[in-house]
Amino acid sequence: MKNQLVSRQHVVLAWALAVALAFGLCPTLAFAADEGTVNGGAESASDAPLAASDNVAWGSFGGDAAGVTTGALPLAQESAELSWEQDLLRTEGGFANVSNLLVVDGLVYVAESDSVWTEAGSTVTNAVLRAYDAQTGELKKTWDLPYAIDSACRMAYADGIIAIPVSGGGLLGVAADTLEPRWFVESGLADSAQSLNSVAACDGCFVHTSAELSADWTAAASTLVRVDAQTGDLRWRLNDDEDGSYWGGAAVVNGMVVVGLDNGALRVVDFATGEELSETVVAQDARVRSKIVPCGENEVVFSTTAGELVKASIAADGSIAVAGRVQFAASSTGTPAVVDGVAVVGGSEADYTGVLAEVDLSAMTIVAKHAAAGDVKSAPVVAQGADGLWHAYFTCNTTPGALYGVRLGDGAPAAFTVFEPAVEDQNYCMASPAADGEGRLFYANDSGTLFALSHDVTCGFADVASTDWVVQEGMLERVVSRGLMQGYEGLFRPWDGITRGEVVAVLYRAAGEPGAGQAYPFSDVAEDAFYHDAVSWARAEGIVSGYGDTNLFGPNDPVTREQLAKMLAQYAAEEGGAVISAADPAAFEGMGGSELASDWAREGLVWCCANGILSGDLTTDTPQLNPQSGANRAMMAKMIVKTLEVIG
Q1: Can you give the pLDDT at residue 49?
Q2: C-beta separation of 324 from 312 below 8 A
Q3: Is 428 in contact with 402 (CB distance < 8 Å)?
Q4: pLDDT at 46
Q5: What DSSP string runs through 630-642?
Q6: H/E/C letters for each residue in 492-534?
Q7: Is the separation of the CB atoms in 245 and 213 below 8 Å?
Q8: Tell me, what's the pLDDT at 330?
Q9: Nearest CA-CA partner of 486 in 453, 461, 511
Q10: Residues near 272 by Cβ (< 8 Å), separated by ≥ 6?
Q11: What is residue 474's predicted lDDT score, i.e. its pLDDT?
């Protein structure tokens, strides 16, 4: 049974603290794993060395490569296909905690913990670690965890071991191949301590911080540990009775651990010795509840609860200097992803609507802001799609608990929906997505459901094959996802001819549907026709002029290839500032049949050929222009996408 619709944003802190108090989960166990038991029952695994996997697609919260992955991922709802879904651990009337997802050796790992309030006010908790086949969703491995996990459990993988933060502040090491327990390290804090920070992996070790909470829900006493990944040996522990880290996470930069604190400071600790090197307030009257992300040889970037993105440099002696900051939201606990010198980070505006911002890290200026459905608490996944553009995928803490996306550098003001769960699977979502590097995305929302999405290049159209040229380089996806062309009754009809009225309607959508123009209407364009406003606009803009002096446009006439090239070139000139008269004619003149082009169409054809928008009929040794032949919907899809690329 699905959990009742409830906002974790309002109840998660109180619930997590109550669970920790109820369970008192802080048993006394040895750091080493050569003997002993976990939770007084399950025997620990052998301490024989484990082989580290070379196939780690997503090894920590936010990913190992600052949230960046490879593979052609779903561009929008039309090209995202639900591969499989799994109901995670939950009890009727219960409230489930779900960890971040790890993707290692083709398996998706997730830790789960479910609690139920009883009449006496206490809770009964189950917890489990599971591994699903990333491609099929088949459950491959499962192990009952001896400890509950908190509301935000941010695991990490290294050297064959999965490190799991558990309630009470401890860290549990589990062998990824067998799911056998290897070691457990206590927090040394009160039983109510929480492990909501992400685990960092570096040089065969895990670094993790836990904290107790004060009356105002800020981190107070805390502990920072470095643990050997395979043996569980405690290399060092740094305790602090006053200031702690909560819902964040450390980074290791140039042999130093950098962690954000709830007092708005960064703390720098020597990775080798555990010696505290410095602590500097970088966010006055705000908290650092973001994972610290490296963004240069000696620089890190992170968000603050005041909605700032801050870049700081860490000197060789551990001293800290703020290198830049920019206000991108009213508040944020989002962790940034970094690609090509741009940080992608989410948060909330003052009216509680969400925002995903792109920030140039060299200038610390906002490149773009994208409106989102709700507070973006997650760390985004960033990937280069089949269209060659960078995309970011993220969740929002609101219903329906969907997965959203934006095209980076596109300037689009709003996010688009990549996947919306079925009604029974809708709920709030603070979780971050993960990727497997093979075109699949994974995420879970508060319904207790794990979703796996794959890339469907056909956008679900039954009459389009994945081998058709119209899907190459994401042409079909891009024209459909941008709303420029749509199908009908599950068909795209790629090889059907397209009319002059339909072409202008596509150009009108590409221009953002600015409204009908003021020019005199064509006599054969009816006021109630779907293309009326588009044709009127195109005439006013100088994109179309009709048939000579007849005041006729011929909206239902099949468009020819040279007419289409002329319209696209005029669109580029009027809407994109292209200087079409300066195009190199070599590509045009090298095509067979170029001498058959009409004089009025030559300039447009030259420009389209020079910019790769029109490549000709490639079924013969010499590409054929066929200027008077008809154009089809597949050609329109490719040519409008290419035109928009050329004019930016």
Answers
A1: 81
A2: no
A3: no
A4: 59
A5: B-BHHHHHHHHHH
A6: CCCCCECEHHHHHHHHHHHCCCCCCCCCCCCCCCCCCCCCHHH
A7: no
A8: 97
A9: 461
A10: 255
A11: 83
Q: What is the chain's length?
A: 648
Please enumerate in sequence order all residues whose Cβ is within 8 A of that of 489, keeping only pairs 6 or more positions apart, or say none: none
Find all residues with CB under 8 Å of 266, minimum gap 6, and list them.
258, 259, 260, 279, 280, 282, 288, 292, 300, 312, 320
624: three-class secondary structure by DSSP = strand
Span 182-201, pLDDT tens digits:
999 999 888 888 889 999 99
The 10 Å CB-count burial string (b at 16+, else e) for 280-292 is eebbeebbbbbbb
Tally of CB atoms within 10 A around 124:
13
pLDDT of the residue at 198: 95
Supply 178's token pair.
């067998």
Residue 484 to residue 309: CA distance in whole angstroms:
35
- 347-366: per-residue pLDDT in tens? 999 998 999 999 999 999 99
Residues 492 and 525: beta-carbon distance below 8 Å: no
- CA 261 from centroid of its chain's CA atoms: 26
Q: Is the pTM here over 0.70, yes or no?
A: yes
The pLDDT confidence band at residue 414, using thresholds 50, 70 and 90, is confident
CA angle 286–292–297, rounded 5-degree value: 130
HSE-up (13 A, CA, CB side) for residue 153? 32
| Position 6 pLDDT exceeds 80 | no
- Integer Cα distance of 276 and 105 in angstroms: 37
Q: Which run of H or of E encompasses 573? A: helix 561-576
Token pair 């166990």: residue: 29
Q: pLDDT at residue 4 above 50?
A: no
State both tokens at 141.
Answer: 């491995």
Residue 625 in tokens = 């222009």
Which of 391, 336, 406 is CA-nearest to residue 364?
A: 336
Whether residue 42 is predicted with pLDDT greater than 50 in this model: the reply is no
